[in-house]
Amino acid sequence: MKTLEELKKIREEARKTVDIRKNKKGTRIVVGMATCGISAGARPVLKALLEEVQKRNLEDVVVTQTGCIGVCRLEPIVEVYRPNEEKVTYVEMTPEKAKRVIVEHIVNGNVVNEYTIGAYED
Ligand code: FES
User: Fold this and answer.
1) CA of 56 to the centre of ligand 1 (A)
2) By CB count within 10 A, which of 28, 71, 77, 119 is most buried?
3) Which helix (H) or strand (E) holds 35?
4) Does the keyword Iron-sulfur apply (predicted)?
């Protein structure tokens, strides 16, 4: 696993890329990074999202972090906001799942239903 310093660097680079596009309305991917999120593995998820977005040179996609999202037991949690669409909440994320979300949801526009919070609710 990467150190915190390395993650900071990745984040800074992502931020630079994002700044240029700040004025456009695009997709926002938010990772819950409260204590529970981090202990559940949110850092590698955040890193995978950033890497995948950069690798694919996705324009208008911003990856940010937030604190508590409110559902500790389902962390790591990733929320996707796309213009004119309902927010999608992905739970129990892993770096592999995160990459799949980028490809299927962000690139191709298909929500990965089996990872959403809806799939976990009775
Ligand atoms: S502290 Fe875990 S979701 Fe808020």
Assistant:
1) 31
2) 77
3) helix 35-40
4) yes
pTM score: 0.78
Which of the following CATH numbers is that of domain 26-120: 3.90.1150.10, 3.40.30.10, 3.40.190.10, 1.10.10.10?
Answer: 3.40.30.10
CB atoms within 10 A of CB 13: 12
Ligand 1 pocket: which residues have CB below 6 Å?
Answer: 34, 36, 68-72
Q: How far is the centre of ligand 1, averaged over its atoms, from the C-alpha of 21 (Å)?
A: 31
**Digit-coded pLDDT (tens) for 12-53:** 777 765 554 444 579 999 999 999 999 999 999 999 999 999
42 neighbors 29 (Cβ within 8 angstroms): no
Determine the pLDDT at residue 4.
78
Q: Does the structure show a pLDDT above 60 at 66?
A: yes
